[in-house]
Amino acid sequence: MIGLPALDHPVLVFDGGCPFCRHFAELAELRSGIANLAIRDGRSDHELRRQLRQQGWDLSRGAVVLAEGRVLHGAEAIQWICSRLEPSATLLQLLGPLLATPERARRLYPMLLLARRLALAVRGLPLDPDQPAGQAATGSVN
After folding, report:
1. At 141, is the pLDDT very low, low, confident or very high (cuts 50, 70, 90)?
2. Which of 16, 34, 49, 111 would disulfide-bridge 43, Cβ 3.0–4.6 Å?
């Protein structure tokens, strides 16, 4: 992870402006069973977001997991989390099996991005955290 801090625990970087993303991240941190999982709000952590973007990881295109010396992005990040869940929360019990395999995560992740886009639009937040506030959540779903 050139340019990113070396970590001895997994970190989930999510878009704190999206209520769905925030809820999933908080549940994953508190009730997933993944040891030492930390969450970071990439929308408010400008320096971390800048470092990720410099490395080619765009938070507006999906969550990021920093784990095992790798950077996982989008469907791959969510699949990493879901494949390791030992959830006690109902939402995680539902999402875990749905997104635990790479194929299903790739197929279903665009729907999560669409839900994120809609939630950000309702809140009046830009899709890209680096856009000035007040710009509508626009762009393609990837």
Report:
1. very low
2. 16
| Strand 70-73 to 64-67 pairing | antiparallel
Res 136 pLDDT > 60:
no
Could you give phi then psi for residue 67, rounded to 5 degrees? Answer: -160, 145
68-103 burial: b if 16+ Cβ within 10 Å, else e: eeebbbbbbbbbbbbebbebebeebeebbeebbeee
Kindly state the tokens that stand for 47.
């320096």
- Amino acid letter, 100: A
> Strands, DSSP E only, in 22-75?
38-41, 64-67, 70-73
- Whether the Cβ atoms of residue 19 and residue 27 lie closer than 8 Å to each other: no
Which pTM value belongs to this model? 0.75
- Interatomic CA distance for residues 126 and 58, integer angstroms: 14
